[in-house]
Specification:
This protein is mostly helical. Helix content is 89%, strand content 0%. The chain has 1 helix and no strands. The longest helix has 85 residues.
């Protein structure tokens, strides 16, 4: 084989190698972009669920505080009526 044939063959091999590497890199980039998009959508969905849970927790906390206030008011009312009952005359009175 002559040197005139070997030089173009080697040059074409180097060109094909660089083209193969570039296509391999672009394929990897596409695969990674796909994974990033999937991860991003998953994160957005998770964030939405977290916000919904926080809203639900806040609403439940408001309900619990309202119930605590009602219980406290009832306990205060019982204490006040209990004190009035103690101060009242307990003797039997004929109507």
């Amino acid at each position: 084989m002559s040197y005139k044939m070997l030089i173009p063959v080697f040059l074409s091999l180097f060109v094909w190698q660089s083209i193969a590497e570039a296509s391999s890199i672009s394929t990897r980039v596409r695969v990674l972009e796909g994974k990033v998009v999937k991860q991003e959508t998953h994160l957005k969905q998770t964030e939405g669920l977290r916000q919904a849970q926080n809203i639900k927790i806040d609403q439940s906390l408001i309900k619990v505080k309202a119930l605590e206030k009602k219980v406290d008011d009832l306990l205060k009312g019982k204490k006040q009526t209990g004190q009035k009952a103690e101060l009242a005359d307990k003797r039997y009175a004929f109507p």
